[in-house]
Design a protein that fits this description.
Length: 257
């Protein structure tokens, strides 16, 4: 398996035709790449794994299939790519069909799949896209941009957010920054607001109810105020104080290496 000396965080990009992508970060001074066929008994999967190209130059790792877009028009095999790299690295993953997982702490995180789920541990910022799958994120210390056709679960966002689902519910356990724009076409929206933050709420739903469970402001001034816009067509909108016990989304489970 290719191994590179990386005493500092790097930038890693994985762009494959079909298959699963996993980034695992930790306290380490090297980067290791593993590429395997999804099914080692299937000829197309074996060929796809053999065709993956791996390069590392000036702190930038690239794991790619050659001529990805042209090859997608033909029958093609599926692979699984595992990258172990230093914590704080920037990661990017792109697959037409498959799951993308980020375990540990990363910087910028961009993941895209047409069909498949996305899971992220902690990132400085995220940009996540899936046309058919669930999104689960533990903690974003900056901005979160998420677009999915499925349920979206984010335990905590410290910065601004634009979160959109056309086929599922949206739940944000704790929103600590803003502005935030949440849209669910056919699901419901639930968001918890961090303590000490006032909210300028703009919430509308076509067929459900808007439930503002935020307690009246305490005497004195809040630490800061954020703008929260929430829209949905086929469900309720619930806004509450984070940690108030109103069905707080579970912390994302640790991901196996």
């Amino acid at each position: 398996m290719p191994t590179f000396d990386t005493p500092a965080p790097i930038s890693a990009r994985v762009d494959i035709v079909l298959g699963d992508i996993r980034f695992v970060t930790g306290d380490r001074a090297d980067t290791v790449v593993e590429v395997e066929p999804i099914d080692p008994t299937r000829r197309l999967d074996l060929e796809a794994a053999a065709q993956v190209e791996i390069t590392f130059t000036d702190g930038r790792l690239q794991v790619t299939h050659p001529k990805v877009r042209a090859m997608f028009t033909k029958r093609y095999g599926s692979v699984k790519v595992l990258v172990r790299l230093p914590a704080g690295s920037d990661v990017r993953g792109d697959t037409a069909q498959g799951e993308c997982v980020v375990q540990g702490v990363v910087g910028s995180c961009r993941l895209k799949t047409a069909i498949g789920g996305l899971r992220v541990g902690q990132a400085t910022e995220v940009r996540l896209r899936t046309s058919g799958g669930k999104v689960v994120v533990d903690h974003v210390t900056g901005r979160a941009d998420v677009d999915a056709n499925g349920d979206i679960r984010i335990r905590r966002i410290d910065g601004g957010a634009a979160v959109r689902s056309i086929g599922g519910d949206i739940r944000v356990g704790e929103l600590g920054g803003g502005p935030a724009d949440l849209y669910a076409a056919i699901g419901k929206v639930e968001v918890g607001v961090a303590q000490g933050i006032a909210v300028r709420l703009d919430a509308r739903t076509s067929t459900g109810q808007v439930r503002d469970l935020l307690e009246p402001s305490a005497p004195g001034h809040p630490d800061r105020a954020v703008a929260l816009r929430a829209r949905c067509h086929g469900g309720d909108i619930v806004v509450r104080r984070a940690g108030a016990g109103h069905d707080t989304p579970h912390r994302a489970a640790p991901l196996a290496g």
